[in-house]
Amino acid sequence: MSLLEVLVTLAMVCMVNYDVDSFDEAKKEVTERAEKLKKVEESLEKEKEEFGNQKSESEETVKRFLKKQKEVKEKEDKVTEREEKLEKDQETLQEQAKVLSEKETERTAGYDQEREEYAKKYVDDAKKDLERELKVLKQEEKVRNQKLDDLQYDYKSLKDDYQYFKGYSQEVDALLLAAKDKIVKYKKKVKSLKETISAALSGSEGDEATVDPNDIAEFTQLGYVWEFNKKTQEYRAKCEDKKGSTRIKNAPVKGRLLWNKVTECYRRHNMWFTDGKELDKFLETKENEKIEEEVQRRIGMKGKSDNTGTKGKGPSWDDGHNDGWWYNDQWNNENWNTNDDGSNWYENGNPNNKGYWQSPEEWAQQNQWDQWTPKGKGKGKKSKNWVQTQ
Hints:
This protein is of the alpha+beta class and 390 residues long. It has helices spanning 3-108, 112-169, 174-202, 256-269, 276-301, 360-365, and strands at 216-221, 224-229, 234-240, 253-254, 369-372, 386-388.
């Protein structure tokens, strides 16, 4: 066999082998595609079945929706009917209210003036009740303040007595006592000379000739020099607190407690009293005036503001803030004391009694002083506020 033939034979054998392999692969591929097509058909059948089920459900849903829509429409019709009915009822009620209002107007016609008069009477009664209540409160406050003042007076009296005895015990120095004796002798001589001159001018001896200078203590207050008699417990203005002032003749005031009240009244009202009853009567009148002013002020403020209070205003004239002006420390070292409790203020039945108090008329008739009234006022100035009877 030739080489060519061998090559041709080999080529044919290769071709046959190649065709067999290709056929197997094609067959295998066709088989796989057939299986896939079968699966796709099965899936389509299943989807078709599911679509049919969904279509049935959709049809049922549409039926239910149509049914609900019909029910809603029926309810809307019923609501419309109710609204129309309510409108009619409202119109009926308005007509009835109008009729009732007209009847009420007719019934109350002519009573407006009567109601106004009743309201005015009610307000007036309430105002009177308020005034009475305010007066009661003021009286209670006055009693409380008086009790507090009494306690302060007692405390200061004890304190002053202690200071007096303390200072008096320090005067045992021999040199001071000797100097004091010389001064007393000199004062006696001067006093005797003055009394002699006064007796010669007036034709009578003074009533102070029997006063022992050792019993007299002097102190300065209210722009005047004061004398305190330790034995008789009397206070007397000696002269003005300035150099060269002449001696003043005036009625004395007996007892520390009364003297405190008298000077306090003079400080507040520029009025001087030597009679306890007259003083209390004057203070009571002032207190009643103050109550009336307070009542009128409260009534005037009524309705303007419920919370105005006393904002921006200073203390009232008797608020007690200055009650201690007369017992300051400058008196603590003065050589005077008192045992008078003020219980004999009104014991004036006997003019010879030490506790006797002259009336303002009796006092003026003694050619001493008309009345202690201010001639002028000024801060930081000592006013000449006594007028001597000629």
